[in-house]
Amino acid sequence: MEKHEARKGMKRRMLLACGAVLLVMQPMLGSVARADDYPNKTMNYIVAFGVGGGSDIIARTMVKVIDEKKLIPVKMLVENRPGGSGAIGYSFINSQKGDPYYLGGVGVSFFTTPLLGKMPLSYRDFTPLAAIARSPYILAVTADSDIKSIDDIKKATGLTIGTAGAVSDPALLSHLLNKETGATIKVVPYDGEGEVMAAVLGKHLDLLFGNPNEILEQVNAGAMRALAVTSAERMTSLPDVPSFSELGYDIVHTQLRGIIMPKDVPAEAVSYWEGILKTVAESPEWRTQYVDRFNEIPIFLDSKAFEAEIAATSARYETLMRELGLIK
Amino acid sequence: MFDSWYLLADGLVAASQPNVLAAIMVGAIIGLFIGALPGLGPTAGVAILLPVAVSFDGTSAIAALGAVYYGAQYGGAVTAILLGIPGDASATMTVIDGHKLARNGKAGAALGLSIAASFIGGLIGLLLLTAFATTIARAAIAFGPIEMTALMIFSLSLVSVLGGKDLNKAMMSLFLGLFIGTIGLDPMIGLPRFDFGEVRLFDGIEFSIIAVGLFGLAEMYATPPSIGKPEEASRFRFRELFPDVRATLQCWRELGSGSLIGFFIGILPGAGATAATMIAYAFAKRTSKHPERFGHGALEGVAAPEAANNSAAYGNMIPMFALGIPGSGTTAVLMGGLLMIGLQPGPMLFQTQSAFVWTIFGSFYIGNLALVAITIVLTPILATCAFVRPSFLFPGVIAIIAFGIFGINNSMFEVMLVIGFGILGYLMMKLDYPPVPLVLGMILGPILERGIRRTLVASDGDLSVFFKSPIALVILLITLVLVVSPWLVSQRAKRQADVANTIAK
Amino acid sequence: MIPLRSFDFGLSAILALLGLYIVSQGISFGYQDGAVPAAGFFPFWIGAGLALFSGLNLIRLFRHSGVLGAVDRMEIVRVGLVSLALCGFVILSGFIGMIGASVLLMIAVGMVFGARDRRSILAVSAIAVGMAGILYLVFGVVLTIPLL
After folding, report:
1. In chain B, whose CA is at the least distance from the CA of A202?
2. Are residues C103 and C137 in the same domain?
3. Residue C138 C-alpha from the chain's centroid
4. Which residue of B has its CA nearest to C44?
5. Does C90 touch chain B (CB under 8 A)?
6. What are the residues facing C36 on neighbouring strands?
7. Model ipTM?
8. Minimal C-alpha gap between A80 and chain B (Å)
9. Is the same domain home to A150 and A120?
10. What does each C-alpha distance from C147 to A300, B253, B393, C132 come to in angstroms?
11. How far is A159 from chain B (nearest CA, A)?
């Protein structure tokens, strides 16, 4: 026990040392990149949703880690601009064209609201910086359900699946599940993850695609059983649960926790933030305060890789929304 | 079950530590004021305090956020009674009789009653929360889309009780409310409806905008200007600024029924405190010996909804603490707070974090006592508000409305909407359109639509599922009785009158 | 004095038309999808209900007259003036900020509600400035709402 603690302490010290080295290097990197030292005024992180939601928790935790590690020489504020299913917040970020002092996070409506044609913007109107975590979805049923595997789903009839929101990741996955397995599960949209969970636990629905965080809690309590995960590989926290791809279904879709900036920001700002976000993504603080706490997958994608995933996700949504008849 | 009370005793001791006490007081006072500000309700209050609170230690943070929530329920009634403006959505029903009382010079009695109702409702809600949290949570999820549909049909039928004398106008008001409820993204496929090309309407119209416009602004518009009539204030006696204990005790039945209705509606995920206040008010009116007094300053009309909305706050927390399911906007933000301090609300919380949960419950008891003390001291001061001349009072009130409504989404679009609803509310008031059915339709319509469509998507359009759920059947039967019985009673009265007439002949 | 009957005519007519508009929109959203109600199902019936009851009210208004009484012309003017003052506040906030605009709003509202002589206007102005300070502290500082 004691030994374990000591080793943990050493690990932390080493990581801290790494952090310190990076910290010393940062101003240098900045000055190389630009004559005037960027950043030299307060950074604003715009959350397009209300306080206390998923996007808000990521933003505040990330800013907290940046603060604790003193990664940037200026203050960073989190500002919520909710409304219009994210449209208000994203339009606001977009209106700060070329200003590298505004940041934002990527949520589902980052893709869907533009596709509805109601926002004269698309993902191309933003500069992707980096992604710092990945959240898979878990297909689950109640513990006493007859459904024990994907094969049972194929055999059963009249199944229902709940999704948080009409156009959302769970909805996308549910339609994919039907397409890939040939099942005819009825997709019933609800307003939030909590409502879906309540309906599944109350046996008004059979299945749901949930976040690792909420599903693990129910699995550990013995109330639910996980059937499969949507990440390419199994999750470390659920070693017995297969991924869809190893079962032979082409269902790989995860939610990326990524950061964007307005369009046309200087390339220096992008590489500066790539550096900062890489430090964040690899820091033990981020691991303990966010990734492990919410049972997500630690990753780091740079601007290029993140951009590619954004384009792929947007295409996936476009297909779904066409099938639902939302885009003509 | 007895374990609960031992655990609560420990919790009360833990919650009496100075740092937690301080957090409770800060939260309660902020909640009280945010609740009183028109436009901003408990959800906004918890959201505003959240970023600050998570820097406290975990227990203090959640104690403070919880205090904002129930503090706002106390505060909402203050503006509702004194100014006729619902301070938050769930105080809308309190306006109807509360403001009439204040205008009749009984501001103190009405405020005192609302405090007592808030406390009793809170206490009953808390006792039920303490005793049955985990058991009730299991029962609550038996309520699915089918049962919710039945409950909403029942609630909408209350228009027959709440609609006033002109049924046709009540129906117009109801359908207008139902229409407003459909504005925004369609809940089932995400199609924008009635957005008029405006993305800011995607999430629908915030209820407090309508409540403030329809009740608050409209009321002010209809108030005659005061050109030199200062003597009016002296008509009211000093004593009437203070709470009236006897009047409070007379309302014991409404306090009890309101608390129970509030608690049980509050538990259901997605139903909400505002729906609870409407049902509690309608129940009080329906069972009253003097239903004609409702709407003209009946004390019972304040007692029932105020007890209900406070009790609902605790009912609302049950699914969150026991199952990890937020049943309302406020509990969703509160749950965000739990996540941020590193706790996972859900079935394991009571086992793994037992001391934390009971300390929080303990803090709720202490917070409620503190709020009673604070509000009783403030009552006479606040009540004098009712005697300030409109030319001095209204400028400030309208400015507060403008700022409060702006604060909902930090935008002026909502302020423009409130101006429009103010004019609509004024017209409705002058033309005898009851505003309550509009509120009823707007709050309940979306829940009804979701319930029906979710049910039918799952059953593939098979309507018979509604009659296979025992809970739904019972609710639908009660609805039938509620709608048909007044008609039967009037028929019988007519027949008796006929008999009496023939005998007289 | 303006008779209220004409207002009721106007409102009922507008609501009846709104009802018909809702019905037409409802149809364009799609009434049914297979056996399941679609996005336009509820709007269709809500619009129909609104049009029906508004129509009934119109018919009733044609048949009976004088049930509603009248309203003082000054009261209507007051509603208009306060609404205009609020609109002015919205527009001015973009130029001089919400705090400045709120002072003007409050003075205007005070005048509408009876502060006409010099002493009352001075008193209202003093209240307005004090209130603006409180608003700034409460909303801008304590609640940290980004005021314009």
Report:
1. B141
2. yes
3. 26
4. B179
5. yes
6. C33
7. 0.93
8. 9
9. no
10. 37, 45, 23, 12
11. 8
